[in-house]
């Protein structure tokens, strides 16, 4: 265990930052950018689905899935179920969010997959899915031998955290990219929208940092420490 | 210790990726962007100093400073000296690199400190300096008590890695931001320069990932494991 402090306070901070991030991204997309729509002649409303679903999905629910092992007063089996179900929801929302970005591009005749954000995004969603499938098979159903699980758990934790940190970093790239496009179209560089988007990105990064700190801290005493591979 | 594998192979990969990243950023700034200059009527040449120094400094030398504890066959005291000297060089190059960005902005009448990249960059360089000063005082001179050092080392490792990962993420933001500006000025989205910059960012991220994996893996057997706090 890396840090000699309890994880629970960090997980409270994660929840608060998650709520703050959710509010900020909704204020941005609804108040400043006109709202969300799956079908619309105003194609920007289709785009708006992308940041909302990516933030709620991969970042917030994905982060809650990670810390659920440290923060829930449940049995190991129940926590495992919560962990994999939350990650499945995160992944599904992430896939719909990625689809929304392509839909917006295609209906607006904007090129696909030329930016670093898009390249990394495709890579991350694929790695997230691989991590989920591998975790499901080894730790849930059918489940590997005790020896295999013991060998896999540190890699599961480290690989999962690497993919999660990449997702948080790529969310920041997305906020910067979109805001740069908007500023090129006339949005003020020091205006309220620019500050809102930058602060949303900062909150997202802090959220990710506190998820990582939760993992590196100590599980509650009653815990079986099965997750404390790091 | 998180991962039951030796760190040394990971550190070899770090060196190779570092050399690759260095070559790519030099090809970009010199071949595609006209070279580097501290004083020039072509202000873009002043900007070019920024990505080169940030990548060589905070990312490559900073990463080598981190893994030096795992990769060098030296005594603990000598490794500590290498670690702090490399981090000092990284920090100084980083400060000059940040100054170059301001110099370019000021001489080109471009606004300062409006973007997420600039906000995070200032925060990261300050945190990097705090981490260096605190590490110097506690672990080198005058040095804290054994008890204080033991209490501080896990936080030193975790805080250092968080700052380093933020630096790698912010380098990616910088590459994406600059390329987006260039594409708005006519650089082709699927052209060779765009691919070069995106691949440099991908190499930078892989470099950072392998630095983290080195830290999470096992020091050579003859090592005193003093750094193995995680």
Automatic annotation (TrEMBL), chains A, B:
<feature type="transmembrane region" description="Helical">
    <location>
        <begin position="122"/>
        <end position="141"/>
    </location>
</feature>
<keyword id="KW-0408">Iron</keyword>
<keyword id="KW-0812">Transmembrane</keyword>
<feature type="transmembrane region" description="Helical">
    <location>
        <begin position="49"/>
        <end position="69"/>
    </location>
</feature>
<dbReference type="InterPro" id="IPR006593">
    <property type="entry name" value="Cyt_b561/ferric_Rdtase_TM"/>
</dbReference>
<keyword id="KW-0479">Metal-binding</keyword>
<feature type="transmembrane region" description="Helical">
    <location>
        <begin position="81"/>
        <end position="102"/>
    </location>
</feature>
<protein>
    <recommendedName>
        <fullName>ascorbate ferrireductase (transmembrane)</fullName>
        <ecNumber>7.2.1.3</ecNumber>
    </recommendedName>
</protein>
<dbReference type="GO" id="GO:0140571">
    <property type="term" value="F:transmembrane ascorbate ferrireductase activity"/>
</dbReference>
<keyword id="KW-0813">Transport</keyword>
<dbReference type="Pfam" id="PF03188">
    <property type="entry name" value="Cytochrom_B561"/>
</dbReference>
<feature type="transmembrane region" description="Helical">
    <location>
        <begin position="195"/>
        <end position="216"/>
    </location>
</feature>
<dbReference type="InterPro" id="IPR043205">
    <property type="entry name" value="CYB561/CYBRD1-like"/>
</dbReference>
<dbReference type="GO" id="GO:0046872">
    <property type="term" value="F:metal ion binding"/>
</dbReference>
<keyword id="KW-1133">Transmembrane helix</keyword>
<keyword id="KW-0249">Electron transport</keyword>
<feature type="transmembrane region" description="Helical">
    <location>
        <begin position="7"/>
        <end position="29"/>
    </location>
</feature>
<keyword id="KW-0472">Membrane</keyword>
<dbReference type="GO" id="GO:0016020">
    <property type="term" value="C:membrane"/>
</dbReference>
<feature type="domain" description="Cytochrome b561">
    <location>
        <begin position="13"/>
        <end position="216"/>
    </location>
</feature>
<keyword id="KW-0349">Heme</keyword>
<feature type="transmembrane region" description="Helical">
    <location>
        <begin position="153"/>
        <end position="175"/>
    </location>
</feature>
């Amino acid at each position: 265990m890396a840090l000699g402090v309890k994880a629970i306070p960090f997980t409270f901070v994660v929840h608060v930052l998650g709520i703050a991030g959710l509010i900020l991204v909704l204020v941005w997309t609804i108040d400043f950018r006109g709202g969300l729509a799956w079908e619309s002649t105003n194609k920007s409303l289709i785009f708006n689905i992308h940041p909302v679903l990516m933030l709620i999905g991969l970042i917030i629910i994905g982060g809650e899935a990670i810390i659920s092992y440290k923060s829930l007063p449940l049995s190991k089996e129940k926590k495992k179920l919560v962990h994999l179900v939350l990650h499945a929801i995160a992944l599904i929302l992430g896939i719909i969010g990625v689809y929304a970005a392509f839909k917006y591009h295609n209906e607006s005749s904007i090129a696909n997959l030329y930016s670093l954000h898009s390249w990394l995004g495709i890579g991350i969603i694929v790695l997230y899915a691989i991590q989920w499938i591998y975790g499901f098979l080894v730790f849930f159903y059918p489940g590997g031998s005790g020896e295999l699980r013991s060998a896999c758990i540190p890699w599961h934790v480290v690989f999962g955290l690497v993919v999660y940190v990449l997702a948080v970093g790529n969310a920041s790239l997305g906020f910067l990219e979109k805001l740069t496009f908007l500023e090129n179209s006339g949005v003020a560089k020091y205006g309220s929208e620019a500050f809102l988007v930058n602060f949303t990105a900062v909150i997202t990064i802090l959220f990710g940092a506190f998820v990582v700190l939760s993992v590196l801290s100590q599980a509650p005493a009653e815990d079986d420490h099965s997750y404390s591979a790091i």
